[in-house]
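This part of the workshop introduces the protein records we will be handling. The question running through the whole workshop is how a given chain folds. To make this concrete, we reproduce a full record directly below:
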Amino acid sequence: MSTKGLRDFRPQLHFTPSAGWINDPNGLVYAEGKYHLFAQYYPEPFWGPMHWYHAVSTDLLHWEHLPVALAPDELGFIFSGSAVYDRENRSGFGQEGSPPLVAMYTSHKNQEGNRAQEQQSIAYSLDGVRFTKYPGNPVLPSARQDFRDPKLFPNPVRKGWSVVLAAGDHVEFYASQDLKRWEKTGEFGPQGNYSQGVWECPDLFPLTIDGREVWVLLLSMGGNEENHGARTQYFTGSFDGDTFTCDGRFTQPEFIDAGFDNYAGVTFSGAPERLLMGWACNWTYAHNTPTGEYCGQMTLPRVLSLVDTPLGGLRLGGAPVSDRAFGPAQPLDGTLPGELFKLTVTGSGAESVSLSNEKGQVLRFGVDGNNQVFVDRSQAGANGFDENFARDWYSRMAAPRFYQGDWKLELTFDHSVCELFADQGTRAFTQVVYPDQPYTRAAVENGSRMTVSVV
């Protein structure tokens, strides 16, 4: 893709590769004061044989780019997976004073007849930078096609490790003491699923609310028209050390994000908070976005929580860690302070907020007369680069609130990516937009209060 004539859309707080293509975040792990981000990667700005990109941060806002951690080999491409800090050296890969980081990933090998073989492999690092692939790979051999995206997590019952794997229309659970030898312990699905799409990128973790523990299962549902592309569903329930049991509180798909551009999100292993990061794009149009030397970015890391809402009961909430980067809120006179800001709008009843530029392009969001939070990017900027991106189906999205009455909307805008949070993050919308000129004005229709914060 040529970069000639393109505006610089690279965000500042949302992670992007130095150059090339990036999609699913992989191997998110916190160890020795550093957050490690790995991700699906190809050195050119389009999808190709998958590698693992690598970057580290101490604050989740500023990142140091490191050498590619894993590259394709005789077992195939390096598809999605996870990583853990093996502090007790259960794997035996460590040395005295140097516990290993252990990554588990899918080895994806294309076969004849448009089929693929997907198996699980591991690699380890003693310095957090250079990785050595285990000579006994694959540790979970398979002849299956849809058998991928292993997410490792500590098993509090078995006192070892477990992994949850996507397997077409369900997930499977395996347990191990050393991360090398695995036994199957259970499955979840397809019963209880309310969404179309091949199951991908699962994650399972506990959260606590009012002193009780609830387990949350994330499932990324592969791209399909009904879901406006690819979306990430979640379930709540329990984990007995062998398998996840859903509590059945939902009767329709519940997504972690109501926007178009948050997919394959997983959480950081070993972090002091339950932090989620996703891929801030959509398979429907990702290959055509007008960003030049790079293609794809991550969502802002968000701290997850459970919220007991008056209209929806127990729901997943969240708040972006970028809130820590912004200064005090100031009243807004209508003039926007550049291309990186946090806009807070408070009100009650229906309200439409607009961000506009001198070309008349407008991004709208707010709360409608049906008590739904909405985002409308249909006139927000360039959209001719992809026919799907230009469709109404991929331009407007609304989702009902789990609250009545007063509301607060918090929008983080970062050059070409915006994330909107409402009602303690129980509704969130992540969207990419490509205005031909920066937005310079913000306005409300019905007099709600607006403040703005800058980094």
User: Anything to note?
Assistant: The chain has no helices and 32 strands. The longest strand covers residues 212-224. The radius of gyration is 22 Å.
